[in-house]
Amino acid sequence: MGTRTDTDRSGNGTRGERLMWLTRERVFYAGLLGAAAERSLGGHGVYVSPTGQPMRIRIGGGAWQSGELLVVPPQVPHQVVSEEPLILNLLIESESVDPAQLPDFLQHCGAVEAPDFVQRVRAAHAQLLAAAGRDGFDALDFDTLFFGQPLVVRPIDARIRQVVERIVADPALPASAEECAASVQLSFSRFLHLFKQEIGVPFRAFRAWKRARSLLRHVRESATLTDIALDTGYPDSTHFSHSIRQVYGLRPSDILAGSRRLAVYQ
């Protein structure tokens, strides 16, 4: 969690403010949004304006909303636009939290009013920047830093949790739904139904998200796109590019280019 993969913080303006804290169940990103098209993330998404300049969001092609805090549930297509180059973004993995026990503002979709939380996120960003110059983030707890307390863990059937753990441990594994169902002694149809019931998203969407999420571990590498595609479980760079654009609204090459000044801690 305290491993840093970029030591360049010599720039001015937003350069020295860009960082990503990547854990197994959480992500905090302070960096460029870019000209992102519609995206569909696999976790609970939270966008915070770093300075108070309102951002805009459109849910599934609907009307634009604006605010300093934007919230999007897992697997909901949306587009975010910001006039500022820097954006603060949190991702909470759907399998890790009980959705009914989330803070009230996280149970909405779109622009939300929660000024205390907005200030907490900005303060947390400043605290992470300070910690980055010292001993890293090992002494910090993600939920306590951003939410003031641990988020309630989602209760999951033991058989489904076994499958989830397998995918999270290695998203590149070519694990089919049929194989996963057999591994926990469930019929194919029962497995698919139980998985969605327990996790909140379909099996294929969950597996696709975890594979796309694993790209975040590679954004500071010098490897080619083809190498990264193969390392993250995609059969070729074409499939990789298409899938990443569906999830993030950006081409893989744009994500890597926008991460050149990003300090990554995992």
Description:
By secondary structure, the protein is of the alpha+beta class. The protein has two domains: 13-153, Sandwich (Jelly Rolls), CATH 2.60.120; 158-257, Orthogonal Bundle (Arc Repressor Mutant, subunit A), CATH 1.10.10.60. The chain contains nine helices and ten strands. It has helices at 115-132, 142-147, 158-169, 177-183, 188-199, 203-213, 225-231, 237-248, 252-257; strands at 19-22, 26-32, 43-48, 55-59, 64-67, 69-72, 78-81, 86-93, 110-111, 263-265. Helix 7 crosses helix 8. The chain is globular, with a radius of gyration of 18 Å.
Task: Write a concise keyword list for the protein shown above.
alpha+beta; globular; 18% strand; seven-stranded mixed sheet; 10 strands; 34% helix
Please give the domain count. Answer: 2
Question: Which strand order does the major sheet show?
Answer: 9-6-3-8-2-1-10
H-E order: EEEEEEEEEHHHHHHHHHE
Please count the beta strands (DSSP E, at least 2 residues each): 10
Content of β-strand:
15-25%
Residues in helix, %: 25-40%
Tell me the radius of gyration: 18 Å
Number of helices: 9
Strands, helices and their partners?
Blueprint lengths: L18 E4 L3 E7 L10 E6 L6 E5 L4 E4 L1 E4 L5 E4 L4 E8 L16 E2 L3 H18 L9 H6 L10 H12 L7 H7 L4 H12 L3 H11 L11 H7 L5 H12 L3 H6 L5 E3 L1
Parallel strand pairs: 1-10
Antiparallel strand pairs: 1-2, 2-8, 3-6, 3-8, 4-5, 4-7, 6-9
Please outline what is shown here.
The protein is 34% helix and 18% strand.
